[in-house]
Amino acid sequence: MIQKTIIQISDVSFSYPGKQALFTNISIALKKGCFYIINGPSGGGKSSLLRLINRLEEPTRGQILFNGRPLSSYHPPLLRKQILYIQQTPSVIDGRIRENLLLPFTFKSNKGLAKPDDKMLLTLLKDFRLDGIHLDDHAQNLSVGQLQRLCFIRGLLLSPELILLDEPTSALDDESSRIVESKAEELCLALDKTVLMISHRKFKPEKIVPDLLHVADGRVTENKWNPAS
Amino acid sequence: MESGIIDIGLGQLALGLLFILIAGSASLYHSLKLEKDLLTGTARTFAQLFLLGYVLKFLFDIEDYRLVLSVFSFMILFAAWTIYGRVKEKQISFFLPVFLSMMLSFFFISFMVTAVIVGVKPWWKPQYFIPLGGMVIGNSMNAIAIALERFLKELRTNRHEIEMKLCLGADYKEASHETLKNAMRAGMIPSINSMMAVGIVFIPGMMTGQILAGADPMTAIRYQIVIMVMIVGATALGTLFVVLLVRKRCFSQGHQLLLRPENR
């Protein structure tokens, strides 16, 4: 079976204003339904690559296609709910857990989506081992690990096609990390989502065989996953 | 009613300099190093106000609406320039939006006051339009500077939260709504507060002037009320336009926040 390309990066160069180039003419095709692990030295552009893919940054040259169409041909809010980017540091609004989980549904671009009820939210929280938490609790009182999972759930409510995880486990304890990672694997395996995950720590996938993207020195190289490395 | 105001002669004016001498000696005695500023300040006060006096006299004599509107525009240009100097923002240019929104909102408010509320004929009569317009400009200028400063600062500090919202499908307006609200509030609160304190904590300058000129206090307070509500209106309209226009410049077409953290 030929796998469809979900993201096509063609000849992309990128630099932050007034800084030297971070990427020079990178080209790479990412396949639908695959699980990619991104590694490389810090400052090498791992996060910037993800930010380019969901159009938080604009390439200085070249173009990126999502499902065969240039990113710029999508209305940005509609693009970003399909290409979900989860930030490295979880960010919540000042409010209760429920408000935070339902935040995306207050935006115009998500008006057509069915709003989940409390029962569904509680099931999801339980799924991510956040059972002790009430929907009326204040989000500010959660630990970083819990917040990261909360942000993950919040993003998944939009049923994105492509999930970009920016080092989701950097601030997490082992248990939280494992939950997030195994959920990400599950999404890829069971729901055919494409996942790109930046990972520093030794991540041992249990169910999937990932591809490796190495980001360094202005390039992105694709490698086979070597579990021994 | 007697309307003659006692004139201040040049000699008496010079006598007023005694107050500056008092301030100067205090500065010298305690080495506050303010003598130079005091001197320039005094010189500028004299020069600027004398100049203003001549300009106003000229305007009142000529009575030409083109001239009145030019002076009004010049005052706004100067106010916009002052804001530009005060708000330290180098990544986006905001002079033009500030100037245009000030022109639009201040002209509208000043026109409403002279033409509709006070009922001056013609509406641009310089004795009314210039001082009233000047008060609108002067007071709202501060509000706009405060709102703008707050807005740009918060866009930077809340970058993470704004991008989080963008990532969840918010457009740039939704993502920055909270920031816009805070900035508008910060700009408007001082003029609302002064409505609370007026007449109890302070007697406003305009009213003082009218009373000294022999006006009935009941007339003076009516003018003052008009001034106060006019300032609140101009502040609201001015900050809203400015912040909306500047916000547009802070985001790209791709709904990306263009303001970078200072170190990146």
Quick structural gist:
The complex is a heterodimer of chains A (229) and B (264). With 229 residues, chain A is of the alpha/beta class.
As a percent range, the share of strand residues of chain A is 15-25%
Radius of gyration of chain A: 18 Å
CATH level-two architecture of chain A: 3-Layer(aba) Sandwich
Number of helices of chain B: 10
Q: Please report the total strand number of chain A as a whole number.
A: 10
Tell me the distance between the termini of chain A.
Answer: 29 Å
CATH topology of chain A: Rossmann fold
Structural class, judged by helices and strands of chain B?
mainly alpha
Please characterize this protein's 3D structure.
- Chain A is of the alpha/beta class.
- Chain A has 6 helices and 10 strands; from the N terminus they run E-E-E-H-E-E-H-E-H-H-H-E-H-E-E-E.
- Chain A has one domain (5-224): 3-Layer(aba) Sandwich (Rossmann fold), CATH 3.40.50.
- A 6-stranded mixed β-sheet of chain A has the order 6-7-8-3-9-10, with helices on both faces.
- In chain A, helix 5 packs parallel to helix 6 (174-191).
- The model of chain B has no long low-confidence stretch (mean pLDDT 91).
- In chain B, helix 3 (65-86) runs parallel beside helix 5.
- The interface between A and B is medium-sized, with 33 and 18 residues.
